[in-house]
Amino acid sequence: MAGTEAKDALGITEGAMDTDPRVGLRAVAALRRLVERLEALQVDNARRHGWSWEEIGTALGVSRQAVHKKHARR
Amino acid sequence: MFERFTEEARATVVAAQEEARLLRHASIGAEHLLLALATRAGTPVAATLARFGVTPDACRTAISPPEALDEADAEALRLLGIDLHAVRERAETAFGRGALDRPPAAPRSPLLRRAGISARLPFGASAKRALRLALREAVGLRSGVIGAEHVLLGVTALDDPAVVGLLRRLGTSPAAVRSALLSGLRPAA
C-alpha cells in the first residue's frame, strides 16, 4: 500500500517537474522558505552554543560577513 | 476613493495598519483588514464575524507569519518528496513548539528602525484590491458611502489565499461570512 503510494507520488513528481511550471516553481518557492526557516533555527542555535559568525559562516559555506548581515540582531 | 469612506471604514483601515505593524508584517494585507473589522467592538460587522468565530484574538493567532509554511506549501513540498509535517515535528522536538513557524523579527534595516516602529506600512496588493472591491460592493448595493460592511464584502469577495487560509483555520469560509453579512444587509422581505 505504502509502496503504491510512494510510486504514485514519484509519478506526480516527475510529471510536475517537466510539465507544469506553476507546480514546479511553487514547490521550489516552498522549499526556499523552508530552508530559510531551518537556517534561522540552526544559526540561532549555534549562537546560543557560543559559535562565532566565522564558524557559522564556514559551516554554511558562506562568508562571515554574509551570515552576520543576514542573521545578526534577529 | 477614501472621501466616500464612512468614519467606521476609515477607523478600520487605520486599525488594519496598526494590526499589521503589531504582527511585524511588512505591509497591510486583506487579512489585516479582516482582523481590523473584527476588532471594532460593538459594530454589526464585528458581531457578524464573531458569530463565525472570527474574533480579534483568534484572528491574530491564526494569521500566519509571512514566512510560515502552510498546507499549500506542505502539498508543494510533498511533490518533491519532502514531508513538511515530519520536518516540523523534528524542529519542534529539538527547538520547541512553533520552532518552524516563529514570526520573523522586526525589520533589521537601520533606516527602518530609525524611522521608528510607527513607520507607516504600505498597502499590499490584496488590501488595495479589497478596498476597490468594497467600492464596487457599495455601488452594487446602491450605497452612497463605503462602510465597514462593504469593506468586509470586499475582503470576502477577493479569493485571497491569506484570507481564505485564515478563515479556514477559524473553521469558516469567505462565502459563509459573506452570505451571512449580505442577508443581514438586505431588508427582511
Automatic annotation (TrEMBL), chain A:
This is Sigma-70 protein. It comes from Streptomyces caatingaensis.
From TrEMBL, chain B:
InterPro entries: Clp_N_dom_sf, Clp_R_N. Residues 2-188 form the Clp R domain. The keyword Repeat applies. SUPFAM superfamilies: Double Clp-N motif. The keyword Repeat applies. Keywords: Repeat. This is Clp R domain-containing protein.
